[in-house]
Design a protein that fits this description.
mainly beta, single chain, 6-stranded mixed sheet, Immunoglobulin-like
């Protein structure tokens, strides 16, 4: 009996030490370019607990998009985010500024594209901690945050709120791209109250589930539901080709370029001024994130002409990606 009891204790000890731990090495690095698959599936995070297998192999991709991580100094209005150490640029040309340390991943603020000429700023005076590092199964924390939204033409609007985080499971995640081990799932509930003239003017909430592996950088899978007081907006996406946590980074430089004419007329060629000869992908992206046209081309030093087909009047982002750099610029298309 004593021998059996000892064996059982040994098994539980092994299980306890086998829980994966998420650290700073699993957070995106400057230079990472992450390609994601946005899915049409409903949010269904599955069950929590130990030694889970989350089979998400049936997720349905509807579009491919990306995040690129740069130095905050290469972003928009960097002086508004003096404590940021990492900036994530979305396919919608929005800039998320983070502070990353061995103990946390926190949001310092956002620069959100409204139109080719306008950007809304969200600046935190008390940063919002998204993740406490390191974390493993059963870790929890509660964070309060506050800041101000600056909306062109409308003014400044304070907000505050809280985020309640729990690492509620660990195990194996199966995606359409493969099977991933050493995965921790976290769930957080976020609530934000916005103010106008000193009075509450609406509350938004977010439920988010995310799967992170100790073997990789970035989120393998994310599911969330955002309620704005009127309706709920779901989002499901997964990383199509995760970076190993031990992979070195080939730093991508954010390069300034000139794209003209702006506004661009339908059917008119667009000119891109570049500073060297290299292969590039040039994409025309709508403001909802859809890639309207993407061309592989050879850019040369000086002016380069490109014609995008079948576009209609509206607001777009021109995204230029090479092996070692990227650039974005907002343009409008008119008749």
């Amino acid at each position: 009996m004593k021998k059996t009891f000892t064996i059982i204790l040994s098994i539980f000890s092994v299980l306890a030490f086998s829980q994966p731990e998420i650290t700073q090495s699993n957070i995106p690095h400057v230079g990472d370019h992450v390609v994601i698959a946005i899915c049409s599936d409903l949010v269904n995070p599955g069950t929590s607990g130990t030694n889970q297998t989350w089979d998400m192999s049936g997720l349905t991709e509807t579009e491919e998009q990306s995040f690129t991580y740069i130095l905050p100094s290469a972003g928009i209005e960097p002086d508004s985010f003096p404590n940021a150490t990492l900036c994530g640029v979305s396919w919608q040309d929005d800039y998320s500024n983070y502070s990353v340390s061995p103990s946390s991943l926190s949001v310092e603020g956002y620069a959100v594209t409204i139109s080719p000429d306008d950007t809304s700023l969200i600046v935190y005076d008390d940063p919002e901690q998204i993740i406490q590092l390191p974390f493993t199964y059963n870790d929890t924390f509660l964070d309060n945050f506050s800041g101000v939204s600056y909306i062109p033409g409308f003014g400044a609007f304070p907000f505050d709120g809280y985020l309640d985080f729990e690492a509620d499971g660990y195990g194996t995640l199966i995606l359409p791209t493969g099977t991933y081990n050493n995965v921790v799932r976290y769930h957080f509930y976020r609530e934000q109250t916005n103010y106008v003239g000193g009075f509450p003017a609406g509350t938004t909430t977010k439920d988010q589930w995310a799967w992170v592996s100790s073997d990789y950088r970035f989120w393998l899978l994310l599911m969330e539901e955002v309620f704005d007081g009127i309706s709920t907006t779901p989002l499901v996406w997964y990383d199509k080709n995760p970076y190993s946590a031990s992979t070195s980074v080939n730093t991508l430089n954010y390069r300034s370029t000139t794209v003209y004419p702006n506004p661009l007329r339908v059917g008119q060629q667009i000119n891109i001024t570049w500073d060297r000869h290299e292969q590039a992908y040039v994409s025309l992206v709508s403001m909802d994130g859809s890639v309207m046209d993407k061309k592989q081309t050879e850019l040369s030093e000086g002016s380069n002409s490109i014609v995008f087909n079948h576009i209609i009047p509206g607001l777009y982002v021109i995204k230029i990606e090479t092996n070692g750099s990227f650039s974005t610029q907002k343009i409008s298309v008119i008749n």
